[in-house]
Structure formats: C-alpha cells, structure tokens
C-alpha cells in the first residue's frame, strides 16, 4: 500500500508545473474518497487466539469537507471525514478439549474524524501534508464460551487519527488527493479479562471541489 502512495507522490511531483500559487488554496472544499481499509486490532484473553486472527482488508468509501489557509508556500487548515468500512465480521476460535471452543468476533462498520492538516507547496499545484486529530468509530464484538455464557456489544469509541498525503490541483476549482490515515482507539471489553484494542488504516484516493 505504501509503494502505491510513494509512487503517486513521485509521479505528481514530476508532472506538476512550478508556477506561483496566487492564493488559490485558501477557502472551503468538499469531496468524496474511495480506497482500501486495513484492520489490525489487538486482542487479549484467548489462549491461542491473537490479534492477527481478526486482521481484515476491505473497501472504504466516504466524504469529507474542510477549509484551508495559505501563507506563502505553506498551507494549513482543518478537515472532517466520514467513511464506510466494508469489513466483514471476523471470528477467532480458541480450541479446548478435543475441539470445543471459545469464540470471539469483531467488526467495524464506519469511522469518522476531525483533523488538522498542514503542508508545504512543492509547486503551485502540488501540496504535501501531514494530518492529525480525533476519530470516532463503532465497534461490534461478541463472545461464546463453551462452558456457558455468550454476549455481544455495539460500542462507540473515541481515539486518534494521524497520517500524510498529497493533493494535486488539476483545475482552478478541482483537485485530487492520495492519503494514508492510521486510526487508534480505546479498548473494548468483550468479557472479563478479554478485550480488543481497535486499530485500522485507510489508503484513499479522493477528489475535491473548492468553493
């Protein structure tokens, strides 16, 4: 995934003209994005179950809005995003006594964030930036103990988001971006001494319209 990101940055840097910016990055914008999500939660409590048993890769798609200010070659501002996550429920089983199991499941449906971003204009059309802020997601979990007991939960968790990207202005009011964001959240308790620590990344391509 990172090879795609770095290759995209290099390609746009080569083709981007090097004219003066003239303040075109200041203002509001909105757009849509699509890409891939990479879920890699931590897990504790199962005898032979690990966090890797719940890793998943899926489609991501959503929308974003923001505002930028430009000062010379520097651009800074804020952006809010909402993405649907196409992860399917992942289940891990802990074999006990000839095949009987404890089972745990984990799933995420969406993630939202509010982030600051700041960057440097490599040319009048190419912005390289970093971004960080807060995020919210909804975590679905369940357990089924072979000795008895089963439950499920659907909980909202607040966490952090950070990443980097580039944005290329290909027309006076239009631009596209490639962006990788990593999300970290507080743990979700499934049962006594059994919990997940949600973590995921998204690699998106997006298109923006500036008002």
TrEMBL record:
Signal peptide (UniProt feature, chain positions): 1-20
Residue ranges of domain Outer membrane protein beta-barrel in the record: 9-211
Keywords: Cell outer membrane, Membrane, Signal
Pfam families for this protein: OMP_b-brl
Keyword Membrane applies: yes
GO CC terms, sorted: cell outer membrane
Subcellular localization: Cell outer membrane
Keyword DNA-binding: no
Highest taxon of source: Bacteria
Family: Belongs to the Omp25/RopB family.
Record's protein name: Porin family protein
Protein's organism: Mesorhizobium neociceri
């Amino acid at each position: 995934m990172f090879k795609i990101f770095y290759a995209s940055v290099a390609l746009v840097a080569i083709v981007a003209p090097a004219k003066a910016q003239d303040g075109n990055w200041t203002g509001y914008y909105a757009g849509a994005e699509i890409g891939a999500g990479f879920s890699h939660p931590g897990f504790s409590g199962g005898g032979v179950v690990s966090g890797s048993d719940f890793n998943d890769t899926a489609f991501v798609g959503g929308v974003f809005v923001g505002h930028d200010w430009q000062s010379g070659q520097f651009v800074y501002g804020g952006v809010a995003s909402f993405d649907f996550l196409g992860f399917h429920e992942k289940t891990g089983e802990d074999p006990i006594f000839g095949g009987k199991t404890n089972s745990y499941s984990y799933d995420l449906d969406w993630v939202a964030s509010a982030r600051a971003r700041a960057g440097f204009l490599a040319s009048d059309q190419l912005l390289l930036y970093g971004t960080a802020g807060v995020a919210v997601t909804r975590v679905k979990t369940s357990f089924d103990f072979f000795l008895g007991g089963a439950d499920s939960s659907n909980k909202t968790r607040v966490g952090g988001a950070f990443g980097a990207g580039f944005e290329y202005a290909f027309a006076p009011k239009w631009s596209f971006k490639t962006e990788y964001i990593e999300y970290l959240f507080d743990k979700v308790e499934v049962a006594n001494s059994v919990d997940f620590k949600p973590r995921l990344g998204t690699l998106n391509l997006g298109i923006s319209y500036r008002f």
